[in-house]
Every structure is written in C-alpha cells, then in structure tokens.
Amino acid sequence: MELLMSLMTGFSGVISIKNIALLTVFGLVGFLFGVMPGLNQTIAMSLLIPFTFSMDTVPALCIVLGAYFATNYGGGVTAILLGIPGTPSAAPTVLDGYPLAKQGKARKAVSMSIIASGVGALFSALLMISFTVPMAAFALRFSSHEFFILSLMGLSVVAGLSADNLFKGLVMAAVGLFMTSIGMDPISGSYRYVASFHLLEGVPFIPALIGLFAISEVFVMMTDKSAGMRLEKMSGEGVTRDDMKEVAVPVTIGSIIGFIVGMIPAAGPNIASFIAYGQAKRFSKKPGNFGKGELSGVAAPESANNAAATAALVPALALGIPGSSGAAIFLGTLTLHGISVGPMLFQKNPEIPGTIFAISLIIIPILVLIGLKGSKFFALVSLVPKDILAPVIIAVSTLGAYAVAGTMFGVWAAFFFGIVGYILRRFEYSISSMVLALVLGRMMEINFRRAMLVSGGSLVSFVTRPSSVFLMLVTLLLFSALPLMQMLTKKRNKKDAQMTYAP
Asked: Where are the domains positioned within the chain?
C-alpha cells in the first residue's frame, strides 16, 4: 500500500505539460550526447545539473533523468550506422549491428536496438520499483557501523574495477577521499586544508564534475587527429513480427543480466552488455552467425545496458551508494537540492522515490518514439566537426560552472579540473573512481567517526555486529569478484572487439 501511494504521488507530480515537455526535450539532449562518440552520460549530466539549481525538485529530476536514461539509447545508433559506439556500453552492438548496416539492413538493426532498449529499461524499472522500497526499509535498521561499510563497499568496488591497473584505481579513490577532507570538519567544525575562503564548504562538486568530464573531453578532442567517419544509410525494412519472436530470448537474457549486474555497485552497463552478448551467443541456435550480422547480437546488449542503467539507481536510492558514475552524479543532484540520500530518503522525502519511479516509466515510450523517428537525424548530428562542437561545450561548461558557484571561482575550478582530468585520461587513470570517492567520502568519514564515538574508539565493534560482519564479507567478495568478472569478460570478447573500431 505504501508503494502504491508513493507511485500515485509520483505520477501526480510528474504528469503535467511542463514536465512531459522537459522529459522529451532533455531526452533528445541525452540522445545527442549518446550518439556522439566521446560524449556520454556523465558529460551530459554534468553540464545540465547547474541549470537545475534554481528549479523545483520535480522539473530538475525530469531534466537530469531525461538525459540519464536517453544516452544509452543513443549509443547503439552510431554503433550500427558508423561502426563506432556512441557509449562504451554499446561496443558489443557494433559486432553485429554494423555488419547488418553494411548488408542494407540498417533500419532493422537501429529499430531493434531502440525497441530492445525500451524492453530492457521497462523490465528493469518494474523490478527497481519492487526492490528499492524493501531494501531501504531493511537498511533503516543499520547504524553508523553498517553505513560506513556500505560506503566502503561502493568505494572499494569502483577501485577494484580498474582491472588493467588496480594500483591506479586505488590511487584515484584515495585522491577523491582526500578532496572530501577539504573544508569544515563535519564533527568538530574546525577547518581543514582551507587555502581560500571559497573552500570553506569543500571542493565545489559540480564545477569539478564539469571539468573532469566535459572540459577534459574538449582537450581530448583538440588533440585527437582521428580520420573522418563513414555513415551507412538508413536502408531496408523495419522490424517485423518474426524478428521480435526471434529476439525474444536474447532480450529476456539481456534484461535479466542487465538488472542483476546493474544492481552491483560500479559494475554498470559496460560489463552487463558484454556478458549479455556472450550469453545470447551461447544460447543461440545460430552461434556461428554472431559477428556477421545477427539481430540477436544487437538486441541482447542493448536490452542489457539499458536495464543496467536503470538498476544502478536501486543501490543509489536505497543505500546511498551509486551503482555507476552517472548514478553518482544523480545523487549529487539530489544533494544539491537539499535532499538526503540513502534509506532516510524514504522517511524524510517519500515523494522523491515515487517521482523517480514515475519518471522511469513515463520516459520509456517517449525515448522509444524519439529513437524510432529520429535515428537518422541523430546519426547525422554525430558527424558535427569537432572544431564546432568543442567551443559549444566550453561555453556551456563555463556558464554552468558560474551558475552554480555564482563567482568566477567555480569557472576556474572547472578549468583546473578539466586540465587534471585530461592528464589523468592520458595516463589512463580512472576519473570515475575519483568522482565516486567524492560522493561517498563524506558519508564514509562521518559514519566511521560516529561509530568510533559510540564504541569508545574500539574497532572491535565492527566484528561484534552480525550485520556489519556480513556487509564486510560482501565487500570483500565484490572487491575480488568484479575485477575478475571484468577481465574474464574482456578476454572472452577480445577477439570480437578487434572488429569494433574497424568500420
């Protein structure tokens, strides 16, 4: 009954001409960022958040979530028509999508990617609504001990995802944690590492995001000398009823895998899409066709990455642990609007989860319609020259950073982090690890120090509580299992992935 009331409240708050228009417009914006190789979900959200600062909460959520959900839909379009994934999670889509386009079946492949994305998102949204409330209710029993371990769980998993270089992932997590220590001490009120009065409240989160993701991408554009791209025509017939019967099992597999993997903090759509592609091939009656233009090879990863994106909101809403870097930025949006994240969200602001649930259901048909009707246009937009795109991003980034900070300090901070982000990307350090540490660091510190105050400074209290011991074991399991999962997935798809960037 409580869940039903939450959903009714959410729908009543979202359903208005203004909010539907915002979802549509910023769904279009998310598509644009999804289809442009190099631009992605985190960049889109980082640029949009500053403009929601003075808005009411519901319109702000429509803007940010519109872009959040739409980017994964758009990533598959350029994967099929250009042979270059618009988002990393669309990389497996290239393997069969681009061969289909070269065979004159581009319209069928693109339509299937959009429909499969919608099915995966719907499946995951329904499960998200079912799982989040009970999970949050269970988490309300936790004390500072458990919340500290939960924040450590999210942090350690992100660092562990740096399977190519675990040390670099740990370094970036440590840097992010150090940055959260700048500003006023949350317990004693003393100042720490405050070199300027602008840092009294800590490192400005939104300008840092804009710099690390958007401005650093501009610097990459300026130094990237890649050749031009060839766009395949939107030719051939669309999806038929027989096609839908053919992909029913792969879409189901992708949706289930996407939800399960997406719920694991920091696993995300990238891993989900590769696993779904591998499993769809394993269960296919025609495994030899995969990599040559098999429709199931498009449907499975696209349903998985969209299901995973939705599922990443489950730990974010229920536990305050972002399931992906996009979910981390979403939590930053809630914090920016003065909303407490984690289990207490359902007690202090019960209308917010209902609003998020409603948006996740309402936006699905909007995005499917946008994708089916506008894919050809979006693919053309992906060919916009970088010397035009880069100045536009810089202008929007500067305006956004100034809008949040209200002073030029926010702008300088954004450009500082843009330079830092560019250097980190060139040396293959994980920016996402730093950002998630920025989100989780304060929660981690406050709960650890509270636990120490309650226990009289004894660490033994962490191993005398069954719930904290259980969470510690889960944390260790995830820390060791996720890098292994990523390496095995990468190894399994290494041969196929060589085709991904070779139009």
From this structure: 2-497
